[in-house]
Amino acid sequence: SGLIMTDPDLFSWVLAPVAPREFEARFYQQSVCVVRRGEPSYYDRLLSLAHIDRILQTHRLHHPELVLVQANRDIPRTDYTDDQGIVKPETVAQFFGDGATLVFNHLHMRVPELATFCARLGSTLSSSLQANAYLTPGGSQGFKPHWDSHDVFVLQVEGSKRWTTYDAKIDLPLRGQQFDKETPGPAAGTFELSSGDMAYIPRGLIHSAESTEGPSLHLTVGLMAHTW
After folding, report:
1. Which neighbouring-strand residues pair with 69?
2. Is residue 224 exposed (0-12), middle (13-18) or buried (19+ Cβ within 10 Å)?
3. Which residues fall within 8 angstroms of residue 152, CB to CB, at 6 or more apart?
4. 176 burial class (0-12, 13-18, 19+ CB within 10 angstroms)?
5. Which band of pLDDT confidence, cut at 50, 70 and 90, is reported for residue 55?
């Protein structure tokens, strides 16, 4: 099981078959790294659609633990929460059917396997980590092109997503330098992730993603940059 690996082995498991030294030399905070494995069950030990369904149906989720987003419209939280900000699962399911993406923020606070994963990998990388999950219906896009102020590992759990990248506007931005609806410019590259695949995206690189014909579930593991 990957959850009882020593920390260096866990980092190798995330990157495999790319070696950690190759990743650090060629990709870390430099460029996108895409790993295609052809192993759909690779991340089953971390998360599954069954996990997500159980959390949605049995946990008392508050906004912004769960957020609904869709690239072509704004979805006010009051449309899917009650007066106390508690998420209404039936309403969420209706929005999902209409093309909305479900964003489970800080899911490592709810799923023990993800908590262990983030703690051990964070120890190896000397960084605090957070894990968000994105469940997107087929043929839908949750966010317009944007960049993040932290590096991310994208772990494709179920289904597939097509990603588009654009040139960075700011070199390795920090937390205070948030994306502000800049025009991304022409696409610089595209790639598709299927179940079991991984991509690393350095902070500041503008990107967007759209699910293919079926639902997509992926984890975004964010590496929070240290500042002094």
Report:
1. 101
2. middle
3. 200, 201, 203, 220, 221, 222, 223
4. exposed
5. very high
Residues near 207 by beta carbon (within 8 Å), at least 6 away in sequence: 145, 146, 147, 163, 164, 165, 166, 201
Among all chains, which residue has been given the structure tokens 């000397």? 126
pTM for the model stands at 0.92
Q: Rounded to an integer, what distance in angstroms lies between the CA atom of residue 206 and that of residue 87? A: 30
Task: Look at residue 179 and tell me whether its pLDDT is greater than 80.
Answer: no
Q: pLDDT tens digits for 72-99?
A: 999 999 999 999 999 999 999 999 999 9
DSSP state of 88: -
Mean pLDDT of 184-197: 93
Q: How far apart are the first and last CA of the chain?
A: 37
Strands (E), the chain: 33-35, 66-69, 101-104, 128-136, 151-158, 160-166, 187-194, 198-201, 206-211, 216-224
Given a contact cutoff of 8 angstroms between Cβ atoms, the answer to whether 128 and 186 are in contact is no
Using alpha carbons, list the distances in angstroms from residue 28 to 67, 146, 203, 226.
29, 19, 10, 15
pLDDT of residue 180: 67
Report pLDDT for 2: 41
Spatial distance between the Cα atoms of 177 and 194, rounded to a whole number of angstroms:
31
Residue 195 CB contacts under 8 Å (≥ 6 apart), including other chains: 40, 41, 42, 43, 156, 157, 158, 159, 160
- Per-residue pLDDT of 204-219, as tens digits, reads 999 999 999 899 999 9
